[in-house]
Specification:
The chain is α+β, with helices and mostly antiparallel strands. The chain is built from 28 helices and 30 strands. The protein starts with a strand and ends in a 7-residue tail after the last helix. Helix 6 runs antiparallel to helix 8.
Length: 820
């Protein structure tokens, strides 16, 4: 068929001729596909299809179901020349409809970037750039990603400089023109008021404004109409041109009447002021992400060939040993191989307290070494570092569209044609009613000029960009705009116990009913000695409980003895000779089997079990001297986080594989009221689904490792990260710091962002719904109202339009100061 198209896409996973046949057969099953031919040598399939019936996404999905893979890539194009929401729609249409191989193109007006999902090999970047340029817009080009950032900034700065220059030309000619025009209207020019040359002077002053300051509107309007759409430029060019060319006709003496040269000039100059303020304000919306990009250290000091040398950070390679002195930024991700220090990670994680680092600990690039000298082995460099991943994730998320934006997009698509029709009807009605050509013309111009599609286009993306940037600065990463929107409506939060509420590793909590914490050194002398003996037995142990005992002793600076005659009793405990004493550590069964005297401590062991703690009995020379309680303790801040979520009106649920008694004990400590206990790892998703069937919009919070199905099942999946783990696939939201208090922060941020979006949309719709009728003259029938409301002048209309979009952006920028 003449309408059929062809697309060639790579296919991975084919190993033989049967695979070729399978790919061809399955692809042909998609309705609208007439032919599919696989080239096994190049591992590509060429598909002939009817674009009205079949989409490339359907073909890819079918190939995946057959067991093969079609690689898909994403890139961002910085776009120049967009002025309103209609421009966004034009660029999206040019990419989505006219370039085969593009699966999805989404344009963000606030960041002025197109995020494009495409099939490698089926389309090139040059094809995309050409499509954008054919639509009448530009693309910032650069040789590398770093250069692209600089080139993009230079292009934006050059655009602002050009607009500023044109604005000043407009001001220089418009101010005297406006003053002279008002002077003549009020009879202040004396005998010159009605001299023919005055109109010619006005014409001369208005012309540079019309065709220099306002030339962008003609160019933008032409490109828009050429693409069979109409944008803001069409309205401004049309409104100012009507006033300008009508005035020329009056000046030439072809018609009697009053000239409106000052109106056409003031319209263009005022709107230019608004667009310039808008451009500068839009730049501020992405300041948070720019700040993140600026965190990267420019140079690194590395050891090579026995010498220390300073090199640009982008020249560091994996395996390099990097030296970081106190006060310096850590240039790349790595592992400490020498030294001890405290590292300030606040700019990435939002955590205010420095984190202690020692040999073997991971560090993140762009964080600040506060105290000691560190030697770090580089493990991730360039685009693989945590900072680069964060920036990339946030930029991709900012480029996505929130569902709430759909209404604004639909209205924007028909907005300008509707306004032109309203303006034409306004002129016809007022002229037919006998109010005269000039009065009807003034109202037509006012309607054209006051209408503002820009505010509609900026209402959602500016708030999304600011909100996500704010989140990134607090260590909260949203996967896309939909996740940010969904989070505000959550009703229930499911918390996985291990690693989310608790630390995920055992810790000594009590010795003989004496409570202790890792920073508490005030244990009684007998209990300190008991801990020393137990740790001496366990000092070489790899068992998690044994390691917990050793850590507790080391934290208190206890000197451990070397064990002799060490014996590991599988499933029960250990024994050894310490300083001439026989020390036995283990469970109650081991004590019974060895005939150890319990010394009346059974009640202590039972109490620990009731508290969901593991009781480790310590016997010395055949008699129990104490019971050590070990538990997976709750994280600092977990109880506070639960309390904050409950105050936000959320139902907090803890899910764990522990038995009911243990689960209830931990839940009580954390302040959680509802518990789902004895849940197998494979049943977590089903339990989330059960909550959803209760009508609850549910979030799942986990570590992203064995919680992936539950995270995916939830309306919002929130993954607790560990600093370097920023891209957890199944999660909608990632908390870099691993602090549970990030969950209520994320929800509060989502609610604040959605409130801002709703305020912006209300303003954008209300502005147009109220002021377009006012410009059309509906208030003229209310004689008690002030004259300036009954007869809205086009200059006042231009002023209102100029500042409408600035109002929306300014409201979005308030999010930067929001407390979360």
């Amino acid at each position: 068929m003449a309408t059929d198209k062809q697309i060639t896409m790579p296919v991975l996973g084919m190993t033989c001729a049967n695979c070729v046949a399978a790919v061809e057969r399955n692809t042909k099953k998609v309705e609208g596909v007439s032919d599919a031919v696989v080239n096994f040598g190049t591992e590509k399939v060429t598909i002939t299809y009817d674009p009205t019936l079949a989409k490339p996404e359907q073909m890819i999905e079918r190939i995946k179901k057959a067991g093969y893979e079609v690689p898909v890539a994403t890139l961002d194009l910085p776009i120049t020349g967009m002025t309103c929401a209609n421009c966004v729609a034009t660029v999206e249409r040019a990419l989505n409809k006219k370039v085969p191989g593009i699966l999805e193109a989404s344009v963000n007006f606030a960041t002025e970037k197109a995020t494009i999902k495409y099939i490698p090999g089926a389309v090139t970047r040059a094809d995309m750039v050409a499509a954008v340029e054919r639509a009448g817009y530009g693309v910032v080009e650069a040789a590398s990603e770093d250069e692209l950032v600089d080139a993009e900034k230079l292009a934006r700065d050059a655009e602002i400089a050009d607009q500023t220059r044109k604005l000043w030309v407009g001001v220089i000619f418009t101010v005297p023109l406006f003053l002279l025009s008002m002077g003549r209207d009020f009879g202040l020019l004396g005998m010159w008021s009605h001299a023919p040359w005055v109109n010619i002077l006005f014409w001369a002053l208005a012309t540079p404004v019309q065709f220099y300051t306002g030339w962008d509107y003609y160019v933008g309007g032409y490109k828009s109409l050429r693409n069979k759409s109409a944008n803001m430029d069409v309205l401004v060019a049309l409104g100012s041109s009507v006033a300008y060319f009508y005035s020329i006709i009056i000046t030439a003496g072809l018609l009697p009447g009053h000239v409106f040269f000052e109106t056409s000039a003031a319209i263009i100059t005022l709107i230019k002021v608004g667009k310039l303020l808008e451009a500068r304000a839009k730049g501020k919306t992405s300041e948070a992400i720019k700040a993140l990009m600026g965190l990267q250290a420019k140079t690194a000091r590395v050891e090579r060939n026995g010498q220390e040398i300073d090199i640009p950070t982008d020249q560091v390679i994996v395996g390099d040993v990097v030296i970081v002195r106190p006060g310096e930024k850590i240039p790349v991700d790595g592992v400490v191989v020498s030294g001890r220090s405290a590292v300030d990670e606040s700019l990435l994680t939002g955590e205010s307290l420095p984190v202690d680092k020692k040999t073997g600990d991971a560090v993140i690039g762009a964080t600040v070494n506060k105290q000691g000298l560190l030697k770090i082995e580089a493990t991730k460099v360039g685009r693989e570092t945590a900072l680069a991943q964060i920036v990339r994730l946030v930029e991709q998320a900012q480029g996505s569209k929130a569902p709430i934006q759909a209404l604004a997009d639909k209205v924007s698509a028909i907005f300008v044609p509707a306004v032109i029709i309203i303006a034409a009807l306004t002129f016809i009605i007022w002229y037919a009613a006998g109010f005269g050509f000039t009065a009807a013309l003034v109202r037509l111009v006012a309607v054209l000029v006051i209408a503002c599609p820009c505010a509609l286009g900026l209402a959602t993306p500016t708030a999304i960009v600011v909100g996500m940037g704010k989140g990134a600065s607090q260590g909260i990463l949203f996967k896309n705009s939909e996740s940010l929107e969904r989070a505000h409506a959550l009703q229930a939060i499911v918390l996985d116990k291990t690693g989310t509420i608790t630390k995920g590793e055992p810790e000594v909590t009590t010795i003989n009913n004496e409570q202790l914490t890792m920073n508490n050194s005030s244990l009684s002398a007998p209990n300190l000695e008991l801990l020393r003996l137990a740790a001496s037995v366990e000092r070489g142990s790899e068992h998690p409980l044994g390691q917990a005992v050793v850590r507790a002793a080391q934290a208190r600076g206890l000197s451990l003895s070397e064990p002799a005659a060490f014996e590991a009793i599988a499933g029960h405990g250990v024994s050894a000779q310490i300083d001439g004493h026989t020390v036995l550590l283990g469970n109650l069964r081991l004590m019974s089997e060895r005939g150890v005297y319990l010394n009346g401590m059974q009640e202590r062991g039972e109490q620990l079990q009731r508290e969901a703690k593991t009781a480790t009995w310590v016997a010395v020379d055949g008699a129990v001297q104490g019971v050590i309680g070990i538990a997976d303790t709750i994280k600092d801040g977990s109880r506070e986080a639960v309390d904050l979520m409950q105050r936000q009106g959320l139902q907090v649920v803890m899910m764990t594989g522990d038995n009911q008694a243990t689960a209830q004990a931990i839940a009580a400590e954390a302040g959680v009221e509802r518990v789902l206990a004895e849940v197998l790892p494979g049943d977590k998703a089903a339990n989330v689904a059960k909550l959803q069937t209760e009508g609850l919009i549910t979030a799942m919070v986990g570590d992203g490792i064995n919680d992936a199905p539950a995270l995916a099942q939830a309306d919002v999946g929130i993954a607790i990260g560990t600093g370097a783990d920023v891209a957890i696939e199944a999660a909608s939201v990632t908390l870099i710091s691993g602090d549970l208090r990030g969950v209520p922060k994320a929800i509060k941020l989502s609610r604040a962002t959605m409130a801002t979006i709703k305020q912006n949309l209300f303003w954008a719709f209300a502005y147009n719904v109220v002021l377009i009728p006012v410009a059309a003259g509906v208030l003229a029938f209310f004689p008690t109202l002030p004259y300036y409301l009954r007869e809205l002048h086009p200059i006042a209309a231009a002023f209102a339009m100029a500042f409408s979009s600035v109002t929306v952006i300014s409201n979005s920028l308030r999010l930067r100061r929001a407390k979360i």
